[in-house]
């Protein structure tokens, strides 16, 4: 079938005005936040319901056409990039909240529901959706499920998979599966729901998700603490975690802080310059808890682990302190950063970071390195900034060399090459650093069952 005939058929499967082939749309919906691959999709389609998704998948099967799912396009692994003439399936118009059960604290969403939309809905019910990150205003629930998104609250609330009660998915054959049916306890064989969480659309497309909600936290309070070195951050975490139920524990380097301060729109937390900073959050349910946090802070100062610090006294100050952490990705995007999203068990973090910092500093001393991440769950974000005078292609080539060394260290510490961003295409060739050949073979076998013609986001996670 010619490309023209394919496009004509697509217009019969979804609303005719929901097929786009103009250059601007192909570029916009054919990529995510990564800049490693040039988008080159055949067309963008916007289904409005499950039946249209099924029709698209069945047609793609008949014609052996590749499909790429598109959500908020905030991904950082090129999992939503269509670089080889694929048809992009955007869920922008499947964006409704369908049902809510107060007693079960469950809300039924279409995949195009934006994360912040779900958070706002939960708040209106007096509840809380705790999976949160900087792109919450544009990321979509379907994409969050596809990458098992984490974010800033994992230390308390876990990853996206902890909040998925049930799924409806269209497999690579066009079959509709209803998985788990929103049950808390269900011991009837394989939990196929968990296979689709983190699968990056390679097994099928999520068309409906039931998400669990939580009690809304009360009087959230944040502290930003400056430390003399990275090694001091871990005893600070241990001190606070031993006595308080933390909802977050983040860290960032002085280079990250300097980039934020250069924006001019975020106030400095305190005057002391420090090599590293920790941001922690907890519920100050009463004055005793707030006083206990101050006592722990004083203990950390006495031990030499903390040089200075501040505790939020209002919602506005809480928001300002969080901006120091949440604005980092957006701020450094100007330098076309090469991002690594890596993780190890929490106890191994200090030695792990030292090893990587040494390698990068030794071989590329002219590259500026910005560290930040979710230190409370062992997740580090290594950002190498592109020098202004270096071409993007040359920079990415040099970073590919760095990758090999970084991932060898990840493997040494039994860590993950992707903690929360997924594999996509940017990490595909490095999967063996975190997964054995036997595991990868089983994963390929699973894909063959759900997607026998390899039409669902082919070339992502691994090549077949």
From TrEMBL:
> Residue limits of the FAD-binding PCMH-type domain?
37-216
Question: Subunit structure, briefly?
Answer: Homodimer.
Classify the source by domain of life. Answer: Bacteria
Keywords from the named record? FAD, Flavoprotein, Metal-binding, Oxidoreductase, Zinc
Q: Which GO terms describe its biological process?
A: respiratory electron transport chain
Instruction: Write out the catalysed reaction.
Output: (R)-2-hydroxyglutarate + A = 2-oxoglutarate + AH2
Q: Which InterPro entries match?
A: FAD-bd_oxidored_4_C, FAD-bd_PCMH, FAD-bd_PCMH-like_sf, FAD-bd_PCMH_sub1, FAD-bd_PCMH_sub2, FAD-linked_Oxase-like_C, FAD-oxidored/transferase_4, Oxid_FAD_bind_N
Give the protein name, as stated in the record: D-2-hydroxyglutarate dehydrogenase
* Protein source organism: Halopseudomonas xinjiangensis
Specify one Pfam family.
Answer: FAD_binding_4
Q: Which family does it belong to?
A: Belongs to the FAD-binding oxidoreductase/transferase type 4 family.
Q: Which molecular function GO terms apply here?
A: (R)-2-hydroxyglutarate dehydrogenase activity; FAD binding; metal ion binding
Give the residue spans that cross the bilayer.
none
Identify the EC number(s).
1.1.99.39
Enzyme class of the recorded protein, top EC level: oxidoreductase
Its required cofactor(s), as named, are: FAD
């Amino acid at each position: 079938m010619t490309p023209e005939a394919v496009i004509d058929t697509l217009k019969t499967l979804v609303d005719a005005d929901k097929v786009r082939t103009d250059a601007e749309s192909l570029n916009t919906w054919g990529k995510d936040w990564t800049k490693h691959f040039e988008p080159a999709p055949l067309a963008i389609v916007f289904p409005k319901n499950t039946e249209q998704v099924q029709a698209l998948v069945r047609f793609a099967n008949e014609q052996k056409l590749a499909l790429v799912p598109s959500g908020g396009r905030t991904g950082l692994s090129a999992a939503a990039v269509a670089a080889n003439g694929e048809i992009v399936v955007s869920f922008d118009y499947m964006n409704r909240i369908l049902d809510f059960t107060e007693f079960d604290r469950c809300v039924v969403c279409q995949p195009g529901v934006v994360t912040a939309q779900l958070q706002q809905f939960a708040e209106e019910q007096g509840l809380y959706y705790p999976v949160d990150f900087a792109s919450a205003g544009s990321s979509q629930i379907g994409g969050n499920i596809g990458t098992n998104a984490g974010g800033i609250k994992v230390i308390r609330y876990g990853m996206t998979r902890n909040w998925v009660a049930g799924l409806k998915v269209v497999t690579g054959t066009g079959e509709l599966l209803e998985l788990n049916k929103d049950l808390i306890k269900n011991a009837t064989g394989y939990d196929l729901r968990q296979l689709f969480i983190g699968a990056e659309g390679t097994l099928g497309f999520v068309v409906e998700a039931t998400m669990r909600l939580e009690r809304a936290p009360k009087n959230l309070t944040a502290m930003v603490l400056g430390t003399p070195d990275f090694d001091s951050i871990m005893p600070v975490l241990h001190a606070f975690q031993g006595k308080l139920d933390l909802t977050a524990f983040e860290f960032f380097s002085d280079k990250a802080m300097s980039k934020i301060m250069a924006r001019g729109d975020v106030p400095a937390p305190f005057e002391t310059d420090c090599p590293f900073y920790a941001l922690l959050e907890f519920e100050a349910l009463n004055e005793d808890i707030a006083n206990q946090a101050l006592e722990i802070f004083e203990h950390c100062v006495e031990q030499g682990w903390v040089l200075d610090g501040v505790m939020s006294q209002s919602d506005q100050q809480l928001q300002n302190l969080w901006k120091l952490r949440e604005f980092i990705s957006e701020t450094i995007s100007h330098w076309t950063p090469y991002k690594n999203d890596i993780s190890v068990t929490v106890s191994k973090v200090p030695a792990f970071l030292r090893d990587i910092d040494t390698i990068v500093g030794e071989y590329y001393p002219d590259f500026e390195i910005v560290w930040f991440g979710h230190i409370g769950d062992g997740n580090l974000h290594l950002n190498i900034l592109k020098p202004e005078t270096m071409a993007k292609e040359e920079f990415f080539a040099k970073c590919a060399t760095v990758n090999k060394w970084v991932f060898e260290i990840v493997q040494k510490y039994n860590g993950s090459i992707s903690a929360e961003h997924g594999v996509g295409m940017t990490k595909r060739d490095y999967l063996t650093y975190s997964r054995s050949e036997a595991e990868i073979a089983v994963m390929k076998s699973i894909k063959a069952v759900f997607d026998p013609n390899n039409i669902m986001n082919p070339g992502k996670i691994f090549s077949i």
